[in-house]
Amino acid sequence: KSAETSPLVVFENIKGCSPKCLRMLLENISGLSVSEDFTVEVIPEMNVAVVTFIQSIDTEEFVKKCSQNKRVKEFKMTARLLELTQSIKAENIPDSVSTDYITVYFESVRNGGGPVSDVQLFPEENSAIITFCDHKGNA
């Protein structure tokens, strides 16, 4: 078992379950409360939701509970840990922004950042790939 498991759980195939229903279901399974203990980001175009646990829980055990849950099975949803990564993609970046500015912005602890090892700017897409020295900086 890894020393640090991801606090992020991905729910796939969520289209049959409304965001409100999903939040209640997650509260029932985890015994925690939404917004205080975890957040849910629904990404409808990908048919997924990402649950971020603020409260420290055994996410591997939570994923196991979800896979055995009657309602999760009825909705035909699946849950899995979101693998930790050292890179993120930032979108909608204005044309005038430099890689130095992006680096300083994402290194700001106040913004939840950390030491950045690389920034690749894609001006034609108004996006950038930011790579952190450690996966903790991309929360």
Describe this structure as you would to a colleague.
By secondary structure, this protein is an alpha+beta fold. The chain has 2 domains: 8-81, Alpha-Beta Plaits (2-Layer Sandwich); 87-132, Alpha-Beta Plaits (2-Layer Sandwich). Helices cover 26% and strands 27% of the residues. The protein contains 4 helices and 7 strands, in the order E-H-E-E-H-H-E-E-H-E-E. The chain has helices at 19-30, 59-68, 70-74, 99-107, and strands spanning 8-12, 38-43, 48-53, 78-81, 87-90, 116-122, 127-132. The strands form 2 sheets. The chain has a 4-stranded antiparallel β-sheet with strand order 2-3-1-4. A 3-stranded antiparallel β-sheet has the order 5-7-6, covered by helices on one side. A hairpin with a 4-residue loop joins strand 6 and strand 7. 16% of the residues are buried. The model has no long low-confidence stretch (mean pLDDT 89).
| Count of discrete structural domains | 2
Cα end-to-end separation:
22 Å
Label the structural class: alpha+beta
Strand arrangement within the widest β-sheet reads: 2-3-1-4
Q: Which shape, going by the Cα principal axes?
A: elongated
